[in-house]
Design a protein that fits this description.
alpha+beta; Aminopeptidase; Glutaredoxin; 2 domains; seven-stranded mixed sheet
Length: 251
Amino acid sequence: MELVKLTRDNIEQEHICCAIANNNDIQVMSKKNWLRERLDEGLVFLKCDVRGKCFIEYIPAEYAWAPIEAKDYMYIDCLWVSGQFKGHGYSNLLLDTCIKDSKEKGKKGLVILSSKKKKGFLSDPKYMKHKGFETVDTAQPYFELIHLPFDESVEKPHFKNSVHTHENMPKGFSLYYTNQCPFTAKYVPLLEELAKTKGVDFQVTHIQSREEAQNAPAPFTTFSLFYDGQFVTHEILSEKKFEKILASKGL
């Protein structure tokens, strides 16, 4: 299987696996713009030469949009091999390529966000631990920071304190999101409009810098929803799913 690496020279014509559409689609535009700004920071977007979700995205942890301390590590933003491509060894190919590249760049290990049980948008804990990753830190309600050290003497990564303190959040819903995932460009405006229609307090923080992301109140900065300071979900919601959450709160 041939692997394709996104660069400034080919990003216009290459599809991004998580949003296959033309470059005028708001989701594609949002994601590609975010990628362009990260390439000079060492971000790598590597995909199998197939039309679908089969890729890995990683970046030096110092530049990761995540509230973690992981000096000299490589942070994996996303490793996604969708159902139709499973069973062909593509996950191993992508991860092993990342490991080789990270070692060649002098990194001390890999770190990625996972969960106690498999959840959407987070790495599969069963697979990652099969590949040698171990849990080094946790954050409520289910987040786990897992790492694969290349040298056992290396300092272990950990979450920043910001993920543990939420007492200053306003009442009602608080949403934090970035453009790292293309789907937020489509769904966040829809959720804002729905909340407005229903007269629901819904405050949105669009994280637009690495510094903001590294001090965010949730490990998953792509999309995290709180209600009265309590974490609700990291799943990027459709209008229908948000309506169910509103109903559960009696709204």
